[in-house]
Recover the amino acids of this structure.
């Protein structure tokens, strides 16, 4: 059995049509080394538009949904920008500040 040498270009997917790539923008959350050195480069090479990049989560859900999301985001060690109203109760507000 003959072995076929493996090369990275053999695994590169075919890019979608230009109309698709230009219709949708990419928002990148997390601007660490892999994002800067690999993801952004790949998006550029494939012609995708990166329309936003951030290291902070902007939490813009209704205050009634915010507490469990803050818990999960804080547990992941991410910074949180929370839109107002921050909380519907003082207990929720204190708890969210504590977990952050």
């Amino acid at each position: 059995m003959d072995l076929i040498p493996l090369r990275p270009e053999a695994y590169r997917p075919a890019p979608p049509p230009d109309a698709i790539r230009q219709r949708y923008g990419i928002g990148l959350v997390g601007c660490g080394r892999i994002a800067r050195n690999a993801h952004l480069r790949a998006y550029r090479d494939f012609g995708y538009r990166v329309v936003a990049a951030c290291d902070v989560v902007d939490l813009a859900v209704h205050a009634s949904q915010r507490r469990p999301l803050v818990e999960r985001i804080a547990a992941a060690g991410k910074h949180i920008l929370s839109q107002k109203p921050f909380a519907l109760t003082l207990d929720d507000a204190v708890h969210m500040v504590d977990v952050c």
